[in-house]
Amino acid sequence: FVHGSHGALEDVAARCVEEVFADAEARARWGTHDVMGEDDVQAYVRMVTFPKASVSDRFVARPGFQLALRLPHYAAPPAPAVEEEPARKKQRMTSGRKRMAGIPRMATTSVSASGPANHRLVTRDGELEALAVGTSETSAAFRSQTGKLERAFEKMVKATDEAEQAQKDVLDIEAEIEAVQIDQSKLPAPRLDLSDMPDFDLPYDVLTYTGDPDDRHAVLAHKKHIDHETERLKLAKENWISKKKKDLKRKSKKMAPELKQLINKLEATKRIAAQKLEKAAKESMHVDRIRSDMGMAIERRTEQAIERDVKKEAQRLERELQKRKREDAREEERRIKEERIAKEKARPKFPMEDIKLIEVDKRMAQEDGREPWPDVVSGTRWETTNEMLQKIEITEFLNTFGGDIGGDGKHMTVDTFERAVDAFDATQLSRMYIMLLHVALDSLASRYKSLVTLWSECLDMGTYPEILLQYAKSKFHAAGTVDEETLRIVSSLQTRTVGEWSHSEHCHVLSWLVNECLESKTLHNIIDTRINERAALSKEITKAKRAAELAKTEKDAAAATQQAQDAQNGENADDIEPTETAEDKPTDKDVDAGIATVPSPEKPEKVIDPEEQRRKEKMFQLRTRAQTIGHDRNRTAYFWNLAQDSSCIYAHHSDDTWSKISSEAELADTEKSLNLKGIRELRLSKNIMAIRNDIVNGMNIAAEIAMF
After folding, report:
1. What pTM, to 2 d.p., does this model score?
2. Which residues touch 677 (CB under 8 Å, ≥6 apart)?
3. What is the per-residue pLDDT across 410-452, written as a single tens digit (0 to 9) for each?
4. What is the DSSP string of 27-55?
5. 699 Cβ partners below 8 Å, 6+ apart?
6. How far is CA 142 from the centre of its chain?
7. Cα distances (Å, whole numbers) of residue 561 to 332, 575, 577, 579, 581
């Protein structure tokens, strides 16, 4: 913004603040603390530009900043006349090092009792200036930050000079290459010399037939021999010429070794120049960052110094409170650790990773003299077709994202999808095409923005076939992501209508549109939004669980306290039943020996919390893919209610085959075959048990419908 402009420094700084740093985008990107004021902008402009002799001169950035920020090149303005300053008294720095010329220095006024000190950071040419106020402690911090800024400025100037020198080296080598090329262009170009080419023509005696002219077989054999020899000599001639051309090409490459060396040197120098240019840009950004941090640190330390006396007592009390909390936390941590160690010693090593469990179970089976755990029963094999999988994919996609991309929000099954495709009026089918096209068109917006806008505005039941045809062609030519079968089906719209398509053709095109939607920016935004909402909902669920656990703990503690008080006061001592101790509890040996134990009372039915149910439903609505019940040891994925089909559980195996669990008996076999000592199969078993009633009801309803 400043580079190349004219005018006074104050006016340029005001325009910068007004037009660059004060807009909403800059505030959102940099924050309110990082936005410079007019004084900061003036100091920064003085640092990065050449001094001007008059107001009419243009602002020109220094060469290092021109290279780092890739600014247009302008000649530096004439240097202003510099008046000689009186000799200043040399001061010794705290570090004892000699101050280099041109490096920023700091002058500090005395600290009075009536107010804070003023600090001014300047350079010899007035290029960098910063003001800060604070106590003597703040002054020390400011001096520390100033030294850090000085060192960073030294590195920036050094990196800028190196980048300029590297760029100059690149220009010098390019000039050498140009000179060598001009010299070589004056040399005569090598030509193909065919003067020493041997004779590849057939001799006259070979061409002349001397046999019996009436012998037809001999005449044909002679003609065939001539054709064969002619073809052989032709190939030999071509091979000879090709060899000559290769030799000529090889000689041409050897003619310019100097040029090749210069080109290699130019490439290496360009890499070095790019690295040094990047280093100069980083050092420049580092200087800006230190300068910003310096102002914020001084401001923060000043506020802390002012409030320190007021907060001193509060901080002491807070430290004591935190100390007690840490002691209590350490005590609680020690108690929890001891309980955890005791539990870890008491509990078995299961569950474990399923793959590892297979080997462990085999070893334990050999030791126990039993058969290893049987394979998982995944129902009966389902011989599906690609068309059926496409229907499930389309239906599941519409059920998952239909409400967010213009659908009516109603769930769809494979049967309702088939009825929509076979319907006479094709209204619902047309809506599906229009809805998917609205989202898929977004993938071409970056290349054909105006055309996509026109298509989106004109997309309706009458125009979607033509827009579908044009979209497929544009996608094929632009990205080549349209397979041949899809392109063939869509291209048939030139001679056919959508209503003439077969069932499989509709499935193929709709499946392709679904995959196009999955690559669109619109759907990516929907998925990102859902992921963020799911994360927030997960935090809410975790918070609710912790609150419930805390309430239960407090309730149990209150009950135990009350019971202890009653026992201590001796109230109703004759009526108090003796508490069962660890010695009175039956052990595993007692159970094995047949000692009777008192049956525990039946657990009351769990009351479903409406808020918890709402969270579960909301979590399901925010899904971004088909929800699985879980996986077994073979990494087979189990789906229920896939495409709103609750009649069975679909099992997708790792070899891309499918099976179905369609009855309660098959479900029981599957549950029985799961090894609950494995992590995945234990989780799968728990998930099945959580929705087992719903699964069985769906299977029974499907069986009753199949009977009629």
Report:
1. 0.46
2. 350, 351, 352, 357, 361
3. 788 888 898 888 888 888 889 999 999 989 888 888 888 888 8
4. HHHH-SSS---HHHHHHHHHHHB---SST
5. 646, 647, 648, 662, 663, 664, 667
6. 40
7. 19, 19, 17, 15, 18
